[in-house]
Amino acid sequence: MRQVRGVSEFISQYAHSLDAKGRLIIPARYREELDEEARLTVGLDHCLFIFKGEDWQALVAKLNTIPISNRNGRKFARFLMSNAFPCEMDKQGRVVIPQVLRDYAGLEKDVVLAGVGNRIEVWDSKTWAESVTYDDMDEIAGNMEDLGI
Question: How far apart are CA 140 and CA 11, in angstroms?
């Protein structure tokens, strides 16, 4: 990962495998940016998200501004935060993915790690191949103008 004008930029994708203990090797390119405060949590589309510490803290700060009376806000904060775990790497650059997260993302053996800006997404390789298609990119690109892209 590199910083572009202060913005996190995880890029590229890597194929790896979980070992029998649920450990996943984090690619060296990503590993160097993940500090002791990095977090692993559920993601959208049944993948997992890994955030470096400062990006996780920024997300938590935003979630904490949602009024407690906002039902969807409570639910979304609960979804992300109650399923978050420290992303602690061993000396070989592996992280243990808790069983609850493996179950959520359907991770069994072969996985794809995808750099997506301020986060790394961890996908079951079969789910990645089935779900992450780009057939509708022309239509999606046309809608990006509304976001200023």
Answer: 20
Assess whether pLDDT exceeds 70 at residue 8: no
Do residues 113 and 16 lie in contact, with contact meaning Cβ atoms separated by under 8 Å?
yes
First to last CA, the chain: 22
Does residue 38 contact residue 52 with C-beta atoms inside 8 Å?
Answer: yes
Tokens of 137: 């990119």
What pTM does this model have? Answer: 0.88
Query: pLDDT tens digits for 87-99?
Result: 999 999 999 999 9
